[in-house]
Structures are given as C-alpha cells and as structure tokens.
Amino acid sequence: MMQSSLPRVLAPAELARCLRERPATRLLDVRTPGEFEAEHIPGAYNVPLDTLGEHGPEIRAGVADPVVLVCRSGQRARKAEEALTAAGMTNLHVLDGGMSAWTAAGQPVRRGAPRMSLERQVRIAAGALAATGGFLALFVNPLFAAIPAFVGSGLVFAGVTDTCTMGMLLAKLPYNRPASCDVPAMVRALSTGAAPAGSRAGRGISSADASCTA
C-alpha cells in the first residue's frame, strides 16, 4: 500500500472512503478509555495519548499500514502524531476535526454509556477553580486571588504551548480509566490488526470493535 497517496490530514468523507478501499488501515483513538467507550468509530483501537510515549516503539515496530489518529477535536491527535513521529513512525495521518467532525458528517459510530469529554472536564475544572478563588478573595482573604490568577496563567500557557497539564491529570482519574481497559492488550491488537482478547468483535476494520470491555 502506498501511504504517500493518502493526505496527512483526512476529512471524514476521505477517511470513510479510505476504510472501504484500504481495509488494513488502522484507526488509533487517543482519547481516554472512558471517552472511547462512550463513542468511537467502529474498528478503532484505543491507546490514550498519555501512554503513547511508552508504547510508541512497539506500535512503530508492528504497524506498517497507514495509521489514522483520532481524538475529540483533532488537538490530541496532533500531539499523538508528534509523539509517534518522535518514535520513528512515518505512516501517520490525522482525522480532521476528530470525532466531532465525524459524527457531524453522519458517519457511523459505536456508542456506549455517555461520558463527559476530557475537554469539557477541563473547562469545568478550570472554571470551578477560578470561581472558587474569586469568591474566597472577595469574602475571605484577598490572597485567594492567586488561585484564579494561577488558573488563568495555566490556560495562557496551555494555549501558547499547545499542551494541557490539567487535561493530562484529569485523564488519569478513575472516571476516565475504566478498570476493564487493558492498554497493553490494545497495543498488541493494534500491531497485529486483530481485536484484543475479551473484545466482543472479531477481526476487521469495518466491523471490529476493538474496545475495552465494560
């Protein structure tokens, strides 16, 4: 397969066509396991962004076919591309707009129990900290104004560097890490193109559901 014939960034319609015409293409969803279980593209494999550093060499060694990176909006997929490129992978592509664009385009998804996206969790946590610090500064001690100042500085830093420390921390919470998720098994399945042990589905990009079992 000539991976050079695929654009680096794929629109939802282009990805759908790619999955029909190139069934060996791997879909690598880098969101949290909780987000993945709530909604994902059929046939996708889930390896969270914060684990790619340790699993990058294994994925590079085992996967020669094109790998399309997927997240909620595309931001984490771009960070995943950087991490895997650093591990030596060159067969990488990104779903433009992530799952938001995929679902908006009416493409097929597999849904489970609803979960809050990591981006939404970050907004809620940052807003709650800023509001709490503001009220404490008004009614308890002005020094508490340092809290919203710290949160605001963190958001500016996240925007400038395209990183989000709060998001990475929230991703490790039990809510976002179902106990049934076995990332090493998912990586092995990604490398071979097979569904991981315990998955409800069989082999194949168009019909497999290589997800963590709930």
Topology:
Elements: E1 9-10, H1 12-21, E2 26-29, H2 33-38, E3 39-40, E4 45-46, H3 52-62, E5 67-70, H4 75-86, E6 92-95, H5 98-104, E7 110-111, H6 118-139, H7 146-161, H8 165-170, H9 183-192
Parallel strand pairs: 1-6, 2-4, 2-5, 5-6
Antiparallel strand pairs: 3-7
Helix pairs in contact: 3-4, 3-9, 6-7
Output the keywords.
elongated; 9 helices; alpha/beta; disordered C terminus; two-stranded antiparallel ribbon; 214 residues
Structure description:
47% of the residues lie in helices and 9% in strands. With 214 residues, it is of the alpha/beta class. The strands form two sheets. It has a five-stranded parallel beta sheet. Strand 5 (67-70), helix 4 and strand 6 (92-95) form a beta-alpha-beta unit.
Number of strands: 7
Largest sheet: 5 strands, parallel
Helix tally?
9
Placed side by side, the strands forming the largest sheet appear as 1-6-5-2-4
Shape: elongated
Spans where pLDDT lies below 50 across 5 or more residues: 196-214
Rg of Cα set: 19 Å
Average predicted confidence as pLDDT:
85
**β-sheet strand percentage:** 5-15%
Classify the secondary structure makeup into a structural class: alpha/beta
Straight-line distance between termini: 35 Å
The string of secondary-structure elements, in order, is: EHEHEEHEHEHEHHHH
Helix content: 40-55%
